[in-house]
Structures are given as C-alpha cells and as structure tokens.
C-alpha cells in the first residue's frame, strides 16, 4: 500500500475516532454508573445536530459558538428525561429498562420526522471547506496529506473534552462520588451519598457529552431524523469494545473503530463496512463481554446479575 | 367459543378494508407470539427478530422465483434456515444476559438488514422483489382476501396453541425458572442451556414462517417491509403492551395496535409521517411505567371469565 494513502487513511481514521470517542463516553458512563443501556442515546446526538443546524439557519450562528447555548439546553433535556423516563424504571425489570429507552427513541425519532420531515440538511462553513494540505515531505516517502478543517476542529475539541472529563472524574469531588457509585452502589449509599442526585447528574452529563459530539460534527455530516440511529450503533460497538463503563476504554476503542471504519471502507467499500464492525461487535460480546479495557469479566457479569435480581 | 367466533367472523365481513385489518392482526399477533416465546418465557429480550422474519420472507420468495418451489414448502425451508441461524446465535450468545443479549441481537438484526440491502444480485437491494402475480394454490397466492384470512387465522392459532402448551408444560416451567433465577434453576437440575436453545429455535422458526406468509400477502418484499430493525421494535412493542410471558398477551397487543395503525393511515394518509410510531412509543412507555405486566393482566383482573384461560 502506498505510504501516502496509508498515512492519509490513518489520519482520517483517528480524526473520525475522536468524535466517536466523545459520543460514546456518555453512553459508557451511564451504563457504568446506572447499569442501564440507553438505547435512546443517539437521539440526543440527533437533537443536538438539529439544534445547532437551526441556530445556524435562522441566526447564522457559528456552530462552534452555539455549543454555549447547546450545553445548557441539552443538559436540561437530560434532567427532564431522567425524571420522566429513567428514574421510574431504575428498580424495575431488565425488560422495562431496555424498552423504556427503546420507546423513548421511537418517540423522539418520529416526532422529529413529523415536524422537520425526512429531508437531509447540512450547513457549509466558508472557513472549513478547503482542506489544509500538509507536505509533501521530501525526507519521508510521503506526498501531500489533506486534512479537512471541520474534522480537525471536531477531533481536537473532542479530545480536549474527553481529557477534561476524565480529569473531572479522576480528581474532582463529584467525579469521585460518581466513580464510587459506579463501583459499588450499596457502599456508596451507606457512605451517605445521595444516589438519586448522582444518577441525575450522571445521566445529564452523559447526554451533554453526546450532545457536544452532535454539535461538533454538524459541519461534517448531514442531519436527518435517523442520523442518531446510525451513530448509536457505532457507539454501542465502541462502548462494548472498550468495556461497558470504562471511560478510557471508550476513548481507545473510539479511535480503533474510527481507524477500522476508514480502512474497511477503503478496502471493501462503503456499504459493507458496518457489517464488518457489527461482526467484530458480536465477537467481542461473546468472547470477552467486559471488552478490551473493561473490568474483569466475572466482576462485570456479577454486576449485571445483581441488577437483574 | 372464541375460536369458533374467529372462524365465522371473516364470513360475516364483506368489506376488504376490515379483512385486511384482520389478516394484519393475525400476522403481527402470531409474530409477536413467536417473539414472546423467547422473550416472555425465557426472558431473553431479542432485538434481532427482524432477521428471522426477513429470512423467512426472502427464502421462500427466492426459492419460488429461481426454482419455482411452492412457498408452502419454502415456508418450512425458511423456518428451518432461520432456526439453524437462531441455534447458532443462541450458542454464540450463550452467556449473555438481559442488556448484553439485547445489544448482541440488535447488532445481528442490523447485519441481516445490511446484507439484504447490499446483496443486490440476490435480494434486489432496496428495489425489492416482486412475487409472481398468478393467483393459484401452488403459488400461495389468492385473488380474494378470504383464503389469506383463514391461513392467517390458522397460523395465529398455532402460535397461541404452542405458547399455551409451553406455558403449561415442563418446558415452560424450566424456562420460567431460568428467567427468574438461573443459578437456582441449575441447582435444581434444569438444563438451562438446552431449554433456552429450544425456545430460541421455536421462536425463530415461527417468526420465519410468519415472514413467508407476510411476503405472500404483500406480493412484494423489500428490506423496509420485511427486515429493517424497526420491525423488531414493533413486534416487541406489541407483545409487551399486550402482556409479555402470556399466551394471549401478544395477540391482544396486535388487536390494539393494528387497528390504530390502519385508522391513522385511513384518516391521515401520508400527510403526517411517523405519527403512528409516536403513538406506539407513547403507549409503550405508559404501559412500561404504569402496568409492566401488560394490558392482558389488567383485563384478567377486570373480566373474571378470562382468568380461566
């Protein structure tokens, strides 16, 4: 393979992976702390894309600037969703927990379809259309490497946000409480931690993270009512590969999936690439349900069992 | 009594519009019943039943188009193929419980959909396949709706009958034991793996049979009508709202939802896309929040005669 093409694909893959990572952190966080899989996660991604789109369309607001409006709005949406749909089902059966978010996803998707139709909408930023060209590098066997500025901005922001969030989890008091709750709910409860408050906060933060990812990719992707579904499937793959509940794992496997996607669409074509990573996904689930970076298997499965009963 | 009523009812209805509704109730009721065998009794919430339904529809149709094989036999070949794949999926996802199983089957269903859309030489891709229009018994194709009603009714009763038998047999108790507490069931000597696979095979076989029947009734199949992932969501929704884990629940779910869909389509046409899905979603969420046992359990409380069933 030509080294220029290889490096070009690798860079494209990493840039894509950064966004996948940011989008998936929220999902893995919610799973880790609350032990529920949010099947409606992609819909918040889609809502954020629409919100950013309309702000651009009506007020000509720069999509990166509009994250300032996006964050509080989507945070509020997260809190409301928590109270209406998540909190009432926390103690109930796996059936309730799975299908409440499946139902929510159906409602959101089709409400958006009803109001804004199935049209594909996109924006074009005048400063982000022309690719930045690096090289050629005479000392290396490399030609010109092209990087799309919108993708670069999305990647850099995503990585900064991911690192920032990781530091927040690691060092802040609230972050420590969130991790404690994730590790052992009963012990956290005994230590006087307000579980309800932490769940609410975790859910809202998870939604904000995926929302930010949605806002950041608007200059790259077109938005339509089912875009969230396309992305959430990738997010599931990332989260499972990284180990459900592991933030570092999500970032790592986000990058891996980004690279895999770019290379497989180069080699075997755009359409079949998804089939490839779903098969990887099932394989990982089967061979190592705790993922590549996750907790030890038994521990993790034990978690699931306790939630079931 | 009820069976006799159902047998005579189609003869009294002369209107094609109502007969169409009746056929759809039988198809979706039976399919939801098939899903319920796995999800309701064994507690394994599949989101990949669209694959089995689609395998049934495509297998019999392709055998008819390429080899002139009657769909009456194609139906069973499709069923066997689906149950083999179901068996493999069951073996592969052996260890996965609740949320993990739902995720793995979701990926499986999506892979099936991707294959159906992209393997154009076989499935015709998004353009779909048209079935031969000559109406005769060999083609499983009839001019009027009445024969479809009776075939549909027969399949509908078969699925309810199988569910009823399972519910009151050793297998049903084993499955329930597995669903409620796997370790305890194992300790008492229940071969949990084996009974789970039996449920998987039965459920996928019946789903594929319904897929064939649906294809024969539509006389045209494409990925949107028989294999996209929303079909899994829809069938799960019917069963849950009607009452999961009961023989009649899924049928009741279909009796509630199919008329809603048909009425909305008749009143609104295509002016409000997605409206029926919004209503589905809202009903699902409300049922999960306020009566997780489904509507049939409430009916049983109110109407004493139903208790005996």
Tell me what the structure shows.
- The complex is a heterodimer of chains A (309) and B (309).
- Chain A is mainly α and 309 residues long.
- Chain A has one domain (3-308).
- Chain A has helices at residues 3-34, 41-59, 67-86, 94-116, 149-171, 173-183, 185-190, 195-217, 227-242, 247-267, 273-287, 297-308; strands at residues 132-134, 145-147.
- The radius of gyration of chain A is 20 Å and the shape is globular.
- Chain A has a two-stranded antiparallel ribbon.
- The N and C termini of chain A lie far apart (53 Å).
- Chain B is an all-alpha fold and 309 residues long.
- Chain B has one domain.
- In chain B, 74% of the residues lie in helices and 1% in strands.
- Chain B is built from 15 helices and 2 strands.
- Chain B has helices spanning 2-12, 16-41, 49-67, 71-92, 98-118, 120-123, 146-167, 170-180, 182-187, 192-218, 223-226, 230-242, 249-268, 275-290, 295-302, and strands spanning 129-130, 220-221.
- Chain B has a two-stranded antiparallel ribbon.
- In chain B, α2 (16-41) crosses α12 (230-242).
- The longest helix of chain B is centred in the middle third of the chain and has 27 residues, at 192-218.
- Chain B is globular and about 55 Å long.
- Chain B starts with a helix and ends in a 7-residue tail after the last helix.
- At the A-B interface, α4, α9, α11 and α12 of A face α5, α12 and α14 of B.
**Main sheet specs of chain A:** 2 strands, antiparallel
Structural class of chain A: mainly alpha
Instruction: Give the helix proportion of chain A (percent range).
Output: over 70%
- Biggest interface in this structure? A-B, 51 and 45 residues
Shape of chain A: globular
Low-confidence stretches of chain B: none
Low-confidence segments of chain A, ≥5 residues, pLDDT <50?
Answer: 296-309
Largest sheet of chain B: 2 strands, antiparallel
Counting H and I runs of at least 4 residues, what is the number of helices of chain A? 12
DSSP strand content of chain B: under 5%
Mean pLDDT of chain B: 84
Number of domains of chain A: 1
H-E string of chain B: HHHHHHEHHHHEHHHHH
Order of helices and strands of chain A: HHHHEEHHHHHHHH
Radius of gyration of chain A: 20 Å
The beta-strand count of chain A equals: 2
Q: Total strand count of chain B, please?
A: 2
Structural class of chain B: mainly alpha
Average pLDDT metric of chain A: 84
Number of discrete helical segments of chain B: 15
